[in-house]
């Protein structure tokens, strides 16, 4: 590496969030490329047999095989680790692959996982249905009830798992309080930071041990690729790395390159999208056919004070409940023309979803009631369109509910 490249790396390491988001993790190759190179190769060559042995057996650190390590994937890992303030990151093929790798690496039969009941449905399914099958006990708790965490976490608990803000009601869980409870019993707290990303919330600074991500959401931000990641300490993530080498749910070099580009604009996207979300949420509170608006940026939201304390912005996802139950919600959604009707979120294009018949459609009515997912609830992930165009689009459907 040239002296200039070394100086640039040092300046990046000393830089702030925006600087690290565009330059972090990039180690220029001998070709002197400006943008990150995409290493689309399954394996790497050795100059001689002795070097091959050293790489395979003696951990020389040289690249061997892209299921183990790949320079483009490593660049993404180093950049995200910097942004989350963690020592290390492991990139995975999807957000669910990150949770799978975590469980495979850290759990064994007889261990216990205590999981917030307000997490992504597949997360809960993976813990209870699949890890449960191998003798791991999985207990769910109301994430806002600290006594429930205290009662559930015991000496057998290896992982306490939560997501904040929650989907789709945007409620806020107290990361530091749950971390203290978990640590008192020797458990690790894992926080899914999909909705805020490190641009708005840094769970490791609030006491969490590991951050998990679906990079598919805001980290990419442009709806192009599926991926995931875990960020934490070297010690906590070394077993995960070893599982990844054997188990193989790795991120491809192509997707890592896409996510590197996504991270470059993360902060400005999240801040602009949050500002528009605030404008849309405020407008929704003035609409007569809207029964309730859920957005932690509104002073009326129960999580407002906590969100202000543990986040540096309120995020781009909001939800609202309209009159008329499912029929009302469907008519509002079907009347929109600009926004995309799709299940994903975190995109520069605004997406609209009816949680009770899509993302949460497989829950029982009782489970939906417990999670506060009414049939009239609509979730919006606000993108980069103008607030005026978005409110005009939503107004079409709301007008249809009148009378
Ligand atoms: C909060 C949250 N965590 C994890 C996941 C799983 O991520 P992926 O779809 O990348 O596997 C999702 C996916 O929608 C999610 O919304």
Automatic annotation (TrEMBL):
<dbReference type="InterPro" id="IPR006234">
    <property type="entry name" value="O-succ-hSer_sulfhydrylase"/>
</dbReference>
<comment type="pathway">
    <text>Amino-acid biosynthesis; L-methionine biosynthesis via de novo pathway; L-homocysteine from O-succinyl-L-homoserine: step 1/1.</text>
</comment>
<comment type="similarity">
    <text>Belongs to the trans-sulfuration enzymes family. MetZ subfamily.</text>
</comment>
<dbReference type="GO" id="GO:0016846">
    <property type="term" value="F:carbon-sulfur lyase activity"/>
</dbReference>
<dbReference type="GO" id="GO:0016765">
    <property type="term" value="F:transferase activity, transferring alkyl or aryl (other than methyl) groups"/>
</dbReference>
<dbReference type="InterPro" id="IPR015422">
    <property type="entry name" value="PyrdxlP-dep_Trfase_small"/>
</dbReference>
<dbReference type="Pfam" id="PF01053">
    <property type="entry name" value="Cys_Met_Meta_PP"/>
</dbReference>
<dbReference type="GO" id="GO:0019346">
    <property type="term" value="P:transsulfuration"/>
</dbReference>
<dbReference type="InterPro" id="IPR015421">
    <property type="entry name" value="PyrdxlP-dep_Trfase_major"/>
</dbReference>
<dbReference type="GO" id="GO:0030170">
    <property type="term" value="F:pyridoxal phosphate binding"/>
</dbReference>
<comment type="subunit">
    <text>Homotetramer.</text>
</comment>
<feature type="modified residue" description="N6-(pyridoxal phosphate)lysine">
    <location>
        <position position="217"/>
    </location>
</feature>
<keyword id="KW-0486">Methionine biosynthesis</keyword>
<dbReference type="InterPro" id="IPR015424">
    <property type="entry name" value="PyrdxlP-dep_Trfase"/>
</dbReference>
<keyword id="KW-0808">Transferase</keyword>
<keyword id="KW-0028">Amino-acid biosynthesis</keyword>
<comment type="function">
    <text>Catalyzes the formation of L-homocysteine from O-succinyl-L-homoserine (OSHS) and hydrogen sulfide.</text>
</comment>
<feature type="region of interest" description="Disordered">
    <location>
        <begin position="1"/>
        <end position="30"/>
    </location>
</feature>
<dbReference type="InterPro" id="IPR000277">
    <property type="entry name" value="Cys/Met-Metab_PyrdxlP-dep_enz"/>
</dbReference>
<dbReference type="GO" id="GO:0005737">
    <property type="term" value="C:cytoplasm"/>
</dbReference>
<protein>
    <recommendedName>
        <fullName>O-succinylhomoserine sulfhydrylase</fullName>
        <ecNumber>2.5.1.-</ecNumber>
    </recommendedName>
</protein>
<dbReference type="GO" id="GO:0071268">
    <property type="term" value="P:homocysteine biosynthetic process"/>
</dbReference>
<keyword id="KW-0663">Pyridoxal phosphate</keyword>
<dbReference type="InterPro" id="IPR054542">
    <property type="entry name" value="Cys_met_metab_PP"/>
</dbReference>
<dbReference type="GO" id="GO:0071266">
    <property type="term" value="P:'de novo' L-methionine biosynthetic process"/>
</dbReference>
